[in-house]
Design goal:
The complex is a heterotrimer of chains A (422), B (290) and C (306).
Chain A lengths: L1 H18 L15 E7 L4 H18 L3 E7 L5 H10 L6 E5 L3 H4 L11 H7 L2 H6 L1 E2 L2 E2 L1 E14 H6 L9 H11 L1 E2 L5 E3 L9 H11 L16 H16 L24 E5 L2 H8 L1 H5 L3 E4 L1 E2 L3 E12 L6 H11 L2 H11 L2 E2 L8 H5 L1 H8 L4 E2 L7 H4 L3 H9 L5 H16 L3
Parallel strand pairs in A: 1-2, 1-3, 12-14
Antiparallel strand pairs in A: 3-12, 4-5, 6-9, 6-10, 6-12, 6-13, 7-8, 11-12
Chain B lengths: L2 H33 L4 H5 L14 H6 L4 H32 L5 H10 L5 H13 L21 H5 L6 H12 L3 H9 L4 H9 L4 H17 L2 H6 L8 H6 L9 H22 L14
Chain C lengths: L1 H46 L2 E4 L4 E4 L3 H7 L2 H31 L7 H13 L2 H12 L5 H8 L14 H26 L3 H9 L4 H12 L1 H16 L3 H6 L12 H11 L3 H26 L9
The chains are: A alpha+beta (422), B mainly alpha (290), C mainly alpha (306).
């Protein structure tokens, strides 16, 4: 009896969270947006980040003097916790900055249709960046800043090995990697020909899958990451490690303090555009002596992994005019440049290609000039349900426990039950 | 061998074992200190460089400038001290009652206390958030806890929910259990009340337990990250661990600053340990029971 | 006859008084626990039987469906096994080392405070710093372990990157890290053993080990029960060090533990119902193990007056 009462209480708590009226802020009934809106941001961390956002919000306030923005700072690692508590308590943030992978699962449920035209936006932003915020043909989010993974190579090591140009196919990539690998007499790896272990395995695999002409999902949302082309992406990884021995498991890993391409322990790598800042800080001479080169991973087609932060607004927000104004503002050229340059990422607004920030950062410049090769992950509502299963499947192939085909088929079977979403 | 020689070589062996063990224990801490004054190139060096090529003491002020750490340290300290004080009082009373007073349902309550530790934080935290939001009459809430923000973004949410740990009740219970019965009987014959026996006779004898609970409560509260982040939105209410998280961004980690910040964040706990460990001495010699 | 009755009545009155004091002393704790942990625990149990859609804010009763679903998931089942293995090796080893260290550090000697601090230090050192150092030790090419193995002509594994060795590596680090707190509690417990007992044993000419087994160990029983239950609960809920040493489930999911799966369900997939069902399973394991350990240590772990 007593437990029954407690259970009722528990449900009551849940219900009070969901049913309770959300705090109503001044509503803009047509005309000028006004009132208070909340913003959750996983970027702009630390004092520096906060300063940048506050400057931008001050500029926003000049445009919309009657809107007050209440920012809630978090980071990407804890963004989902913030979103969860906001949803269960029925006070979704009016404006949310979130990653590309969040859009399809949230579209139409948490996120509001911004009512914008994709073609129109493609004049301002690169079309691939616009697509990241599009689901079912509707625009749910605008790009604020992007981050890319592409090929990075050491010109000095290439020259020493007599290689003149970065690889243009998987076959060339393997060949280069083999020639650039250095092992000592006992067979210990001294220098990896191609480092695919410093970047998240899922992102590496996806980049290779796109380059091999594969796709994660078919346009109608069916699993496609075990198609013959897609499997070739994973096969490249296993070939590099298991057949060509151009890299050893355990040689490096995501988040290591020592990044092989910078410390002469790798000749090529699939890396993040942010490495530019890391090279500047660790070994500026590599840049000064022009030892660092970039290439788009290419086989059937060139492919770059595109991640990014997008601005979106809540579907249940009480003050949509003000929220929409803020979303547009955060995706504007000024705000995009400020956010990108604060963390060394790629601004989404095309016109910023001529900004001095982009000109001075070779990786960002390279990314912006290759935006047509950018692909983003996700695309189906159930993406969050399977996203984290990729890593183990890829690793089981790299470790030789399963063939790439087996690993991906199993992953596909697991995904098929979950992608449909609930 | 004379007994003295045995005694002396025994001592030597003891110091040898403890010294080697201690060394093994402090390596990461020393590494943290060394890394905190390294430059980027040293930190990324392969094989690792033990000593920095240049001692970059400036990492410390720079790390502290990375986030408003002054405010964060003050907040963390307030919360940790608050949690420790409340936990000591409330948990010791509860632990005593569970250990030394017979009443119906005692085993049930004791088991209840243990079960409270068995659901992981990540599952409890969402309901806890809702409870904090639904506290009646706070933050614009009505009497049913609806309409407003309750304790969210306030000191209440930072201090009250974490003020008592089942761990502490359990620990106190076990220590009060170990005390001999004769003590309280003697006090009872002297006409002392139950609360007096608790406060004046028994509790002074569990000083090591108090020190342990104080230390571990302070430490747990000081290192808590998720809850303070979830229930606050304003920067004036955030804590050291939130500041430290800023060094580890999605794209890359500022290792040297992270190590410097972590070293500074560890200091209060080391000081507290050296202070409290004085209470880990035989408390019974002075108790005078025979 | 009346005198006996009178005395019994007085006793009962006194008992009632004591019970009232007990109630008062327990009240703040019970209220707080029910409020902040009891309700969340109950809602976890309720949510485990619901299909809660966080986006729509709707919930539907689904009975045991959530449980059926989680047990059909190989990764979850593997995580149970990993958690059991982790607990089985971490807890007893760390407890034995901690007890020995505590006994040694209870001896009066020079630099005792510093030794104690050193053994406690891993507990307060930032987990990232710990991970950094241990990662170097486990590094396959130049790490300490493989360098030592090489001296005896053995080629070591890639430790944290090798699915066969990742869990072992994590267990080693966890034992190392877990000694401090357990030692602290044992140390505290050792202080309350009356010195007189040892003096009496000395008079009887008892040897050191004999004193340890006949006096120290029995009197450490309440503390041991405590350390065991708390360590087991901690081990079952381990997250941080496993996650930092072997992120996202470790190589080919070889170190995924129950709490990680729960975390992923709740905050990676926004599926609070599944996370709750998984938490209930974890709860069940801990409950059974606690009851067993209480049986083993004996109910009368006390000299309670009644």
């Amino acid at each position: 009896m007593r437990t029954a009462a407690a259970a009722v209480l528990a449900v009551a708590v849940l219900a009070s969270g969901c049913g309770g009226p959300a705090p109503s802020s001044g509503q803009g009934t047509g005309g000028e947006p006004q009132g208070e809106i909340s913003l959750v941001t996983p970027i702009f961390e630390g004092s520096d980040g906060q300063r940048v956002l506050e400057e931008q919000l001050a500029a926003f306030r000049k445009q919309y003097p009657k809107v007050r923005v209440r920012p809630d700072y978090t980071n990407y690692a804890k963004l989902n916790e913030k979103l969860t508590t906001s949803m269960v308590s029925g006070r979704a943030y009016d404006v949310m900055l979130l990653g590309i992978g969040w859009v399809p699962p949230f579209a139409g449920r948490l996120l509001a249709d911004l009512g914008m035209d994709r073609a129109e936006l493609a004049k301002t932003y690169s079309p691939r960046a616009v697509d990241a915020g599009v689901h079912d043909g509707k625009v749910y989010a605008l790009p604020v800043m992007l981050d890319m993974r592409f090929g990075i190579y050491r010109k000095d090591l290439f020259a020493a090995a007599g290689i003149t140009a970065p690889p243009r196919t998987f076959a060339e990539l393997r060949d280069h990697a083999r020639r650039l690998t250095v092992r000592d007499a006992s067979g210990k790896l001294q220098r990896a020909g191609m480092d695919v272990l410093s970047t998240d395995p899922r992102q590496v695999y996806e980049t290779l899958l796109w380059a091999a002409g594969g796709d994660l999902f078919t346009p109608d949302g069916k699993v496609a990451f075990n198609s013959p082309n897609a499997v070739r992406g994973l096969e490249l990884m296993t070939d590099l490690i298991r057949t060509d021995r151009a890299l050893d498991i355990g040689f490096t890993k995501v988040g290591d303090t020592s990044i092989p391409i910078i410390t002469d322990r790798a000749a090529m790598a699939l890396g993040h555009n942010n490495l530019w800042l890391e090279i500047q800080a660790q070994r500026p001479e590599l840049i000064a002596q022009d030892k660092i080169g970039t290439f788009v991973i290419t086989d059937e087609r060139p492919a770059m992994f595109q991640g990014g932060t997008l601005a979106s607004m809540s579907a249940s927000g009480k003050n949509k005019p003000a929220a929409l104004a803020l979303v547009k503002f955060l995706a504007s050229a000024d705000a995009s440049l400020a956010a990108s340059s604060q963390r060394g990422n790629v601004p989404a607004v095309r016109s910023l290609e001529s900004s001095s920030y982009v000109k001075e950062n070779a990786f960002v410049r390279f990314a912006m000039s290759n935006m047509d090769s950018a692909f983003s992950e996700g695309g189906v509502p159930g993406w969050l349900n399977i996203r984290n299963d990729f890593k183990a499947a890829i690793e089981s192939a790299l470790l030789g426990q399963k063939s790439p085909k087996e690993a991906l088929d199993e992953l596909a079977a697991r995904a098929a039950t979950q992608v449909s979403g609930r | 061998m004379s007994p003295l020689r045995t005694e002396r070589s025994g001592r030597f062996l003891l110091h040898l074992v403890l010294g080697a063990g201690s060394l093994l224990m402090i390596v990461p801490f020393v590494w943290m200190l060394l890394s905190s004054v390294k430059n980027r190139a040293d930190i990324a060096a392969y094989p690792p460089k033990i000593l920095p090529t240049e001692w970059l003491w400036s990492n410390y002020p720079e790390a502290m400038g990375f986030a408003p750490f002054g405010t964060y340290f003050r907040n963390s300290l307030t919360i940790a001290v608050g949690h420790t004080a409340l936990n000591l009082v409330v948990a010791s009373m509860a632990g005593y009652a569970l250990a030394r007073i017979a009443f119906r349902g005692r085993t049930l309550i004791f088991f209840g206390v243990m079960t409270m530790m068995m659901i992981p934080t990540y599952t409890k935290i969402v309901p806890q958030y809702l409870i904090a939001k639904s506290v009646p009459f706070f933050g614009g809430n009505d009497w049913l806890g609806r309409g407003g923000t309750g304790w969210l973004d306030s000191w209440w949410a930072l201090i009250i929910p974490g003020a008592l740990t089942p761990f502490a009740i359990f620990l106190f219970r076990q220590f009060y259990l170990a005390l001999p019965k004769e003590l309280e009987e003697a006090a009872r014959i002297d006409g002392m009340g139950e609360f007096g026996i608790f406060a004046r006779v028994m509790t002074p004898l569990v000083k090591p337990a108090i020190a342990t609970v104080a230390l571990l409560t302070f430490e747990g509260s000081w290192n808590n990250f998720l809850w303070p982040l979830l229930v606050t939105t304003s920067d004036e209410l955030r804590v050291v661990q939130v500041g430290l998280a800023a060094f580890q961004q999605a794209e890359r980690t500022e290792w040297a600053y992270l190590m410097a910040g972590s070293a500074l964040a560890t200091l209060p706990m080391i000081v507290l340990f050296l202070f409290t460990q004085r209470y880990f001495v035989q408390g019974f010699a002075t108790a005078g029971i025979k | 006859m009346t005198a006996v009755l009178e005395r019994r009545k007085a006793l009962r009155r006194k008992d009632r008084g004591r019970r009232r004091v007990a109630a008062l002393m327990l009240a703040p704790a019970v209220i707080h626990l029910v409020w902040w942990i009891g309700i969340p625990v109950v809602s976890t149990f309720v949510l485990a039987f619901l299909q809660y859609d966080i986006f729509a804010g709707t919930a539907e009763w689904v009975g045991f469906d959530n449980f059926a679903r989680i047990f059909s998931d190989d990764v979850w089942n593997a995580s149970i096994w990993h958690t059991l293995v982790y607990t089985f090796f971490t807890v007893p080893v760390a407890m034995v080392i901690a007890a020995v260290v505590a006994v040694l550090l209870n001896v009066k000697m020079r630099a005792r405070a510093w030794y104690r601090a050193a053994f406690f230090l891993p507990h307060v050192t930032a987990t990232v710093a710990i991970a950094l150092v241990w990662m170097w030790m486990f590094e396959p090419r130049i790490g300490l372990f493989n360098a030592l193995l090489e001296m005896v002509g053995v080629t070591g594994p890639a430790w944290l990157a090798d699915p066969d060795w990742a869990m072992t590596s994590v267990i080693v680090v966890s034992i190392w890290k877990g000694i401090g707190v357990k030692m602290l509690i044992y140390l505290a417990a050792l202080q309350s053993i009356p010195h007189e007992l040892y003096e009496a044993a000395d008079l009887d000419g008892a040897s050191g080990p004999r004193k340890f087994f006949s006096i120290t160990l029995p009197l450490l029983k309440p503390a041991t029960f405590f350390v065991f239950v708390v360590s087991m609960i901690d081990a079952f809920q381990v997250f941080d060090q496993v996650y930092i040493l072997t992120p996202d489930g470790g190589p080919a999911n070889s170190t995924t533990v129950m709490t990680y799966e729960i975390y992923q369900a709740a905050f990676g997939r926004f599926d609070i119902s599944t996370a709750s069902a998984q938490s209930v399973v974890l709860f069940g394991f801990l409950m059974v193990l606690t009851v067993i350990s209480r049986r083993l240590t004996g109910k009368d772990d006390s000299h309670v007056s009644s």
